[in-house]
Design goal:
- This protein folds into two domains: 55 residues, no CATH class; 45 residues.
- The chain is rod-shaped, with a radius of gyration of 26 Å.
- It contains four helices and four strands.
- With 123 residues, it is an alpha+beta fold.
- It has a four-stranded mixed beta sheet.
- The longest helix has 37 residues.
Length: 123
């Protein structure tokens, strides 16, 4: 095999794991998807003497489930971003209340958090 830039394999579910159909090469198997890329690279290297620098494993089945997983990852990323923004707003609010001359106790009351949490936020 000449220079291999990207090696593509299509994963098809079977009783003991996944069949990995490698374009232009052949078929190998893997018990799990997380080991499929290495399995494909090893197989290609065994047959051709060259290890592909990149392997794409495409799962044709489970399209609905894969879309759902992708949506869940996007939602998680949005939630993490919102958490960072909320933390920044809490720090700014605590600092603003303390800068306005409120005690830690009064700041905690207004923010609905403990006095210890106010101390953490303003540090």
């Amino acid at each position: 095999m000449d220079e291999v830039n990207v090696c593509t394999a299509r994963a098809k579910r079977w009783a003991d794991g996944w069949e990995l159909h490698i374009e232009g090469i052949g078929v190998t198997q893997s018990r799990t998807l997380d080991s499929a890329e290495k399995q494909v690279a090893d197989y290609v290297e065994t047959l051709t003497g060259e290890r592909p620098p990149h392997v794409d494993v495409i799962v044709d089945s489970l399209a609905k489930e894969r879309r759902s997983a992708a949506a869940a990852r996007r939602a998680t990323a949005r939630a993490e971003q919102m958490q960072r923004e909320a933390a920044a707003e809490n720090r700014a609010a605590a600092k603003g209340l303390r800068d306005a001359g409120l005690s830690v106790s009064d700041t905690a009351y207004i923010m609905g958090v403990s006095r210890g949490r106010v101390s953490q936020l303003i540090k």
